[in-house]
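User:
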Amino acid sequence: MGALIQSCQLIVQPKNKSPGEYPELAMHRREFLLTGLELSSLALWQPGVGSQDLANWKSARRGQYKGQTSYVLETKTLAAEFIHQGGRMVSLRHKASNREFLVQQQSGEYLKAEYAKVMIPAQAAGYDDMFPTILECFYPDFPWKGVLMPDHGEVWALDWDVEQEKQALAFSVSGVRLPYRLVRRARFTAENRLRLEYALENLAPFELLYLWSAHPMFQVEAGCQFILPPECRRAKTSTSLSGRIGRYGDEFEWPIWTDSKAVRHNLSLLRGPEAQDLEKYFFSDRLVHGWCRLAFPSSRLILSISFSPKEIPYLAIVVGENIPGDPRTYALLEPCTAPFDRLDLSTSYTTESSLMPKAKRAWSIEFSVDLA
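Assistant: Predicted structure:
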């Protein structure tokens, strides 16, 4: 949300997999008690299907979204819709409740991005990849030192190539100001679980520095709650419109925080449009557990994002609640390879978000939706 900011699991264990193969997906009773939901009340979706059965209830097809050709992946539980520009996932919908998780553009016709132009609130929606930066900055090192990296990176504003498979979609895009190729494959691995698999290739004979961040804008309401791993206890402020969490670079405790006016806040709970606030912060410690969750009490759904913390070691949160110029209420959970949004600054926090000459790297994230 770079320009916007500047302007103001229950995951079911897969069949035939032991718990040890998915340690980052473990859910503890303590985490559910944070949301006020009793473990005994959880209605678990049980896959219980083999690969042939899986093929029978998931499909890929073409569609239309606000005047754009779209590509839809769906199962009996979830439907995910994508378009060419940015490879953006414009919709992630839970069918039984008809809940749309992703923020929608308000215009009748889709408002397309322009390369190297700032992302404006009317464009911001859905799920994008932020790469190779989030905030506009200059590339810091040879041989591209001084090259301007656009706001929110390059790939959100480019048209991705799409290959439609029977039960998956493959998206790919090439860099403009840096020599790379990024591929993302989307597929359902279970009826309630959408997996995005990434492959990045450095096409140059020089090391490539980059910052990748997931950028899902979720539609939320007052009472929605973040559920995070135990290591997420201290965070650093990137933006705070109201000053509730201080100024840029300030560190604070999470989720319970007492501000400079001795007011106590539960930062895991969303306040809703009356807050009129915008906040972004990064957690200070690297992730040990690869998951983050958002609970929706009104529909008793929990949306989880799962990933490997070795591949994606940092997490940021953005909350916008009826700010000037943007009356929407939204939240972003942003697993990322480096903190603090700017490629030139991120190298001060980690040296691992880089790719050797002609090298390749793969990672993945998974969205799942469960009843609580």
